[in-house]
Amino acid sequence: MKELFSTLNTRPDGVCNFIDASKWFGKGARIVYRQYATLFFIFAIDASESELGILDLIQARAPRLAPHGGTVERWAGRRVGSGEGSGEGRVRGGLGLG
Question: pTM (2 decimals)?
C-alpha cells in the first residue's frame, strides 16, 4: 500500500485518474482515484466495473464528507454510498474495496 500511495501522491495534477494496478491486485486490476485537498479516494476495480462510473461515484460522494468532518480515519470501514450502510463497496484505510 505504501508503494501505491507513493505512486499516486507523486503524480502531477491534471493527469488521468486511472492507473494499471496489476502489480498490486493482479491481472486486469485498475485503480480509480481522486484527490480532494489531502484526502485520496482510491478504488481498486476489475474489468467488470466502469472507470468513469467509479470516478463519478467519487465525485458525487466525496465532497459530502467535508461538512461532516470526514477524514480517512473517520470513514474507514464504512460502506460507500449515502449514509452509513448503503452501497456495495467497503472503505478500509482510505482504500475503497468494491
Answer: 0.61
Q: Which grid cell is 61?
A: 460522494
Pairing relation of β-strands 39-45 and 90-92? unpaired
Contacts 24+ apart (CB under 8 A), 48-56: 49/98, 51/18, 54/98, 55/17, 55/18
Structural domain of residue 40, as residue ranges? Answer: 2-97
pLDDT tens digits along 58-74: 888 877 765 555 554 44
Which of 87, 37, 43, 83 minimizes the C-alpha distance to 63? 37
Q: Which three cell numbers stand for residue 67?
A: 461538512
User: In 3D, which of 37, 38, 57, 40 has the Cα closest to residue 4?
Assistant: 40
Q: What is the number of structural domains in the chain? A: 1
Torsion of CA 23, 38, 40, 13, to 10 degrees: -70
